[in-house]
Amino acid sequence: MSETDIVVQTKGLTRCYQKFTAVDHVDLTIRRGEIYGFLGPNGAGKTTTIRMLLGLIRSTSGQVKIFGESLEVKKKEILRRVGSLVESPSYYGHLTGQENLEIARRILGVSPSNIEHVLERVRLTNVADKKVKQYSLGMKQRLGIALALLGNPEILILDEPTNGLDPGGMQEVRSLIQELSKEQGVTILVSSHLLSEIDQIAHRVGIIRRGKMIFQDRMETLREMSRPRMRLGVNRVEEATRYLTKIGWSVSCEGEHIWSEGLTNQETATMVETLVKGKFSVYRIEEVKQPLEEIFLGLTGKEEGL
Amino acid sequence: MMRSFSRLFIAEGLKMQKKRLLLLLLIGPLLAILSSLSIAGMSTNAGENKWVMMYTLSVFNYGMIFFPLIAGIFAALLCRYENHQGGWKLLFTWPVSRSVVYFAKFSVLIVTLAISQGIFFLFSVGAIVLRGDVSQIEWVVLGQSIFLGWLAIIPLAALQLWVSFLFKSFGIPLAINVLFTIPNLFAGNSQEYGPWYPWAQPALAMIPQSQVVDFKLAGIIIGGFLLFFIGGWMHFNHRDMLE
């Protein structure tokens, strides 16, 4: 992977509030064109990290590089190529959707045709002339995304974009994210406190807990952690485990059971045959699948709940 | 720099609810002049300088009360949408420097105050015409009063913009402004303390006089401007946007 493929990179990014460390040496890496899921329980430091990526708050230490340039040095140039929606959407409620976009358009200095384009993209064209304070939460959220898209960004940063939406609205935002990624190759960072929100769309995930990045890898790697395992109930379980290990099986003994991973049907049959030949009684064989959500909860700690 | 300034300046204009604001700008000068008309109506022995007496009365009403209040209200209005609906983070994630955002807001504020002065000027002339004293008007003195009043409110405008940025609530900066406007009636009349009081400075600068420049007042006003403008600007640039 070449250096130019990395569009967002933080090194040792830290933010302290008095004695509390909200973000603790986070190394975050986002590659061009990917959808990066930024996961963690509420209060884990997601929003603080995102605000530092956008220069809304200062870091205590560490650095942020976007498009290979330091955010501190080239903030304006970088922000021109980044669209964002941070927490609740920002808007001018006394103005219409169209007028909100017009203000943004003037500041960004982009063509008026962009407004129609983004309105269509988020399906707000027919309410463009309504005051934003009359919008539903879902419509406000979509206007927020439209504002983020207005400057044709290469990176889109969306902080909890589905927060407060009904299931239909959530689905709509998810498909929009996928469309933008597929059709326009936009790199997208999307944060959530729910794995199920980004499970389906993210290529890579970063999981943050108590300010620390505890997992950052491909979505598949996270899924592999939830591969089904085989649980065998046998008599003399410890002896049976040793017996299998000695002849080359990769098994472990946990409690009253023997556990094994990634067995094919044939391998399962062979293992049972081996045990029977070794004079062990096999009581039952079960396939146990650990849901992805439980892996996530295991990583982030259940007590911090959802 | 200039381009982003003009873009932001226009954007600030687009955000405003112009009809309501114009109404707000009309009320102060109108009330000030009506009340001075009614007071001036009672005395007729002012002789040659009837317009000066009548205008000075208006200046006291307007400069001591309405003009500082208008500065506070507009400063609060300029930060209102950003304070309420997360507009700061929207503004600051666009490719504009915070300084330019600050300069644009400040410029809109002082332009608005210039409009207020223009309205006060028109109303004053109208009132003098009504009383039939129009031939007496010394236009230079009148023009100077209007212009100096505008210059003298700039420190207060900078201070109120800072206060409005500091508090998320719309009411707090207004309350502070009203609270500090009341003592004006005393401080403004004090030779010693008046010039030091930002709320009294506009009225003091507007009192028609032949003497060209009051250097003490001018110095304090320039110093106050630098203090409040640079203070507000630095704070604006360095504040973490947490809301």
Task: Report on this structure.
Chain A: Residues 8-235 form the ABC transporter domain. Chain A: Keywords: ATP-binding, Nucleotide-binding, Transport. Chain A: Belongs to the ABC transporter superfamily. Chain A: InterPro entries: AAA+_ATPase, ABC_transporter-like_ATP-bd, ABC_transporter-like_CS, P-loop_NTPase. Chain A: It comes from Marininema halotolerans. The complex is a heterodimer of chains A (306) and B (243). Chain A is an alpha/beta fold. Chain A has three domains: 6-81 and 154-224, Rossmann fold; 94-145, no CATH class; 228-288, Alpha-Beta Plaits. Chain A contains eleven helices and 15 strands. Chain A has helices at 46-53, 75-80, 97-108, 113-121, 137-149, 167-184, 195-199, 219-224, 237-246, 265-277, 292-300, and strands at residues 6-17, 20-26, 29-31, 35-39, 61-66, 69-70, 82-85, 155-159, 187-192, 204-209, 212-218, 229-234, 251-254, 257-261, 282-288. Chain A is elongated, with a radius of gyration of 25 Å. Chain A starts with 5 loop residues before the first strand and ends in a 6-residue tail after the last helix. In chain A, 39% of the residues are buried. Chain B has one domain. Chain B contains ten helices and no strands. The longest helix of chain B is centred in the N-terminal third of the chain and has 35 residues, at 50-84. The radius of gyration of chain B is 19 Å and the shape is globular. Classes of the chains: A alpha/beta (306), B mainly alpha (243). At the A-B interface, α2 and α3 of A face α1 and α4 of B.
